[in-house]
Amino acid sequence: MSGVGAPVRTTGPPVPATLREVSRRGRRAWSLPEMDVPPVEVPHEHRREGRVGLPEVSERDLVRHFTRLAQINFGIDTGFYPLGSCSMKYNPKVAETVAALPGFQRLHPHQPEETVQGALEMLWRLERALCEITGMHRATLQPPAGASGELTGLLIMRAFHEKQGSPRAKVLIPDSAHGTNPASVTLAGYRAVQVPSDSRGLVDLGRLEKVVDDDVAGLMLTNPNTLGLFEEEIQAVAAAMHRVGALLYYDGANLNAVLGRVRPGDMGFDIVHMNTHKTFATPHGGGGPGAGPVGVTERLEPFLPAPVVGFDPEGQRYFWDSDRPDSIGRVHGFGGNFGVLVRAYAYVFGHGRDGLREVGERAVLNANYLATRVKDAYPLAYPGRPMHEFVATAKRFRSHGVRAMDIAKRLIDLGFHPPTVYFPLVVEEALMVEPTETESMETLDAFAEALLQVAREAETDPEPLHEAPTTTPVRRLDEAKAARELKLHW
Amino acid sequence: MQFAPHTDDDIRGMLEACGLASVDELYADVPAAVRLERDLSIPQGLSEMELVAEMRRLAGRNRNLDDVVSIAGGGAYDHYDPSVGWALAGRSEIYTSYTPYQPELSQGVLQALFEYQSMICELTGLDVSNASLYDGPTALVEAVNMARSATRRDRVLVSQGLDRRYLHTLESYGRGSGYRIDTAPLSGGVTSVAEVGEDIAALVVQHPSFWGNLEPISELFDSAHRAGARAIHVFDPLSLGVLRPPADVGADIAVAEGQVLGNHLNYGGPYLGVIAARSQDVRRMPGRIVGETTDVEGRPGYVLTLQAREQHIRREKAASNICTNQTLMAVAATVYMSWLGPDGLAEVGSQCLAKATYAAERLGSLSCAELVWPDADCFKEFAVRPGRAPRDVQRGLFEAGFLVGPIADAESLLVAVTERRTREEIDRFVKAFEEAAS
Lengths: 490, 438
Known about the structure:
The complex is a heterodimer of chains A (about 500) and B (about 450).
Chain A: H1 19-22, H2 59-71, H3 93-99, H4 102-105, H5 117-134, E1 138-140, H6 146-164, E2 170-174, H7 180-187, E3 191-195, H8 205-211, E4 216-221, H9 234-243, E5 247-251, H10 264-267, E6 271-273, H11 276-279, E7 294-296, E8 308-312, E9 317-321, H12 338-374, E10 390-393, H13 404-413, E11 420-421, E12 430-433, H14 441-460, H15 463-467, H16 479-484
Parallel strand pairs in A: 2-3, 2-4, 4-5, 5-6
Antiparallel strand pairs in A: 1-7, 6-7, 8-9, 10-12, 11-12
Helix pairs in contact in A: 3-12, 5-12, 6-7, 12-14
Chain B: H1 8-17, H2 48-60, E1 69-72, H3 83-89, H4 92-95, H5 107-124, E2 128-129, H6 136-151, E3 155-159, H7 164-177, E4 180-184, E5 186-187, E6 190-191, E7 200-206, H8 217-226, E8 230-235, E9 253-257, E10 273-277, E11 290-294, E12 300-304, H9 311-314, H10 327-364, E13 369-371, E14 381-386, H11 390-399, E15 402-405, E16 413-416, H12 423-437
Parallel strand pairs in B: 1-15, 3-4, 3-7, 7-8, 8-9
Antiparallel strand pairs in B: 2-10, 5-6, 9-10, 11-12, 13-14, 14-16
Helix pairs in contact in B: 3-10, 5-10, 6-7, 10-12, 11-12
């Protein structure tokens, strides 16, 4: 069981020298055919003088350098990665295989439609499946990430209200929301108004109703929410919004929990963005690429970004439908992160209807099991039943001089990627743990034991927590210095 | 397919540990009225073998660039990507990781991004690069927002030589941000700006332009600076082995579609948005930025830095809403740029220029075609006006084994020639063009 309960790396050499330091004048990796047409001079006023300062290395230098960089990087394939809110589940290898088929990978975005019918069929069928999963009417596959999906959804919201006469001024967000929500609200030209959580960690319905008026364009919500709890009063929340003509926006960060069990559309949501890199296991790529499809109800369909994929049942052909006068326009240079969508398609259709429901059920089971195992040492921040993730607080260790970050760093030495820490902001010393469905009971047990060991150490001998990590190529890094003495390139 | 490892015994044991009798009880907090009381209308799952067959069926309904020779451009190009690129970027320790929130566990991705930023600075001559944005057009949106923040002005002047996909993306985002877009007309195929107004936040010029033409870029950016506007250069990274870099031509902010840096065509994505700027705008730069620092023992290491700009700290006042970017594509670009080195980059540029020029001369000599801008200088792309409707010509050429385009306007289409094309292919293409266009 690699990656379970034992350090996955040893204190080896520190980070490698940069390629600039490895570089030697005249060394090269590249090869190209001899030029077989007459050379052409660049006009003087446009000509670059001197050589570009790229490294000059052999291919073997390159391979060892990046292999070493891979070795000092922790991925899901390395070990348990319970980063809350990120759904770091196993990324199926078959998705990589099929995305690399030349029939997908070697398509040019300007090819005539009749030469890419398979690609368009894939996009069409994926859109239909995502609409079925979320209870939406149509979807755009253009947004290249979750935050991009948020902004797209908010621009749709804006276009809808404009069509009704006024764009309105405010968008409500819960105090536990991810930072991209308020940032997207501002970019969509709205003012973000925070709605407090109640003592159960749910939207405070009474206070929500007080701030809802006809200048509110909508409310952005995850459900399960950012604390991992299901908003039981979601129908009342939806009714409060719809009563004043406002829209309900579903941030799909936590969609994994409810696959095949609950659909945002059935809860009353009007706009839904999904994160394929969370729910549908497309690789996170070290920070991207993602994809953030956005589904909408029927009345919002006209405002979707253009083009969308169309299907002509008579001619049995797929096409790009650009004739959409009320569309908010284009939100990506081409049709979105197609290569990511191929992987999402493989995931959705590989799992099928029962498989998807089991994904959600097992994600929720894993989170509940883990929470149960550690709750005496790490009490939940709020009392409700967690769904696919839980938020615990480590504030009781503060009296021992131990912070959530110390716990996180000690977990590294015990062989695990730490959970999300200090988020959501409404919880002191937050540890946000999302195990996902692809982890076994043995892994969860090992992680629980590690967390309990760290809790004991925190109370009796916190030194290893303050020293941690000690098993990594570098130890704790001086972030203040990095921001003060900016060194952003070699 | 199923990747959850739970046995029936596991499920029973775990439920019991939680004090629950059934999986349904996990969803007890979900009101009955919103539960889905039926199966999803999605087919049952597939074995891996069946799934691969289904994906091969879909892929097989496409004609791909292994079957046809690409002479197409318009923002996506068939450059050669060496084996080493994805052999390394495809290491799963990298592609199955996420944003490096725990830097001690993520030095690999952080260092690769630091080297990416360094190489983008070397290419452009500018002071600072971030760790990537989504693609070229969305990078332009971010650049315009930087310029607005720096100048506190709300109008943007955009060259008509800008790829319309960039313009349309800018327009979509402008619906929320409220900037106004004016266009600067073309004259003889290049941008003509008499004077930039004092209320302009940024002048945006694509060079080489959508039409493939080299712009009088220094003069244009001088006009921008005289008006106190930021000069935004939409550039082609692979042109910079032979063309003057953005910093030399006066750009304050430079953005590019990074697909050409060792990334697959992927029918339009994932690509990466390149952005670089002068140090005056470093705190307005959106997205992740990696900085070098030291650890508690004084050893060098890398972290995400200047996070006070970002959404997770600044929330509604953040420079941008970007969180996930295109890191993996940036890693592939880093390997590719290192593979090329300075001489390889110059050679790619020289071959593109020479082969495009050769193709333009050959096509221009046909009686059924004329160059749209015969007097303009090009890099790897140019526009041609065939004797017949461009769409018909494009389709005819495709049947003959050549992808050309995009269709630039009602009368013309774009032709792009990369280092990957041989003289023999170009000659065959010209012959096929003659048949398709006459």
